[in-house]
Amino acid sequence: MLTAFLACVMLSFGIGATSAWAAGETLQGTLTNNGAPVAGVKIKAFSQDGASVGEATSDASGKWTIPVPGPGTYKVDLDQSTLPSGVTVTNGRPSLTPAVADGQQRNVLFPLGGGAGGATTGNSNQPAPSAAPSEWNRVADLFYAGIHFSLIIALAALGISLIFGTTGLTNFAHGELVTFGALMAFLFNVTIGLPLVLSGLIAVAIGAAMGWFQDRAFWGWLRKRRTNLITTMIISIGVSLAVRYIFLYFFGGDSRAFSEYNAQPGVEIGPFTIAPKNLVTDAIAIVVLVAVSMALVMTRLGKATRAVADNPALAAASGINVDRIIRLVWTLGGGLAALSGVILAVYQNVSFQMGFQILLLIFAAVTLGGFGTAWGALLGSLVIGLFIQFSTYWIPSELKNVSALGALIVILLFRPQGILGRRTRIG
Prior knowledge:
This protein has 12 helices and 15 strands. It has 427 residues and is α+β, with helices and mostly antiparallel strands. The strands form 6 sheets. A 4-stranded antiparallel sheet has the order 5-4-8-10, with no helix packed on it. A 3-stranded mixed sheet has the order 6-1-12, with no helix packed on it. Strands 2-3 form a two-stranded antiparallel sheet. The longest helix has 33 residues, at 135-167. The radius of gyration is 22 Å and the shape is globular. GO terms for molecular function: transmembrane transporter activity. One of its GO terms (cellular component) is plasma membrane. It is a multi-pass membrane protein.
């Protein structure tokens, strides 16, 4: 029932959007400097034997795409002479050798920095900036990027933590709820033509409804059959794979942008350079996280939720409708995941696997904070987000997620229950 419902919804993407999942293998990317697109930069691709495969020039939104003849490993060169004055590849690697799989649209990352931060042309004859950015500016930008990414992770992590706390389910399909929210916003904003703010609200409402529907039609049914937690976890992995490829089939493998708030130049706020759209989404995320956290502490439903999480049998004996509370948690988790997806898509465009790509980081945040604790999910998200961004100060940006997961392993060696988790006796 779940996949059938998703298939019906995704059929609407056929209106004004390309379907099919692959038009062939491509190398692609987006060049930005402090959040602003960098246009006019030349990118060249070569095969392993040194033959030219193709070249592209980044457009007004900083995007470039080079079709390649098939799967394989390619050499991709960024022509640094076409960068704006003062802008450089911050990791010192203008040449990369990415591997492209069958049917893959492979994203290639060239982190840029320096210059005026808001340059949108690739003309190297632009006037030089008055002063090069200092190390303090870079640290400030990394700090803000960490906070911003932490809030995105926290929205999804809070939902998955509440679901685990009340049901014990480790839901590997939660990343697809994040993607679902972004795709619904894209549907209403780009395909139908509604404003992005209204599209986002509708997407969050549909995401919450999807959370309710999942528990009503699927997970609740498994729970009544007393399916053990290992089995349900494996089922969630299967659901994740099935839904992800439904998204791929109907939406396609390319990443796409919303019709509004793209490529905004950053504004100077003290040592920070921040795009206005990021400030707005940060404010929304903070308000939602604070509201949900306070509701868990101060409202009757919140206290009932915590009672179910602590001891479902005792909560039921006290007159609490356990199934109703679990369904409420699934609804809330679906809405929070959808909101996380919308904000993530505003930050880095819409992709069929965007939720899957941050799923391990969501689990890392929940595990680090302590499984089943709402405050732990928030604290764990903050640690993971900041560590990911600050790690790029010393290591290539391609390895930043690896560093965060490595830090998670080290911390859990000394505190296996997580930062705010409680020790429990087994046996």
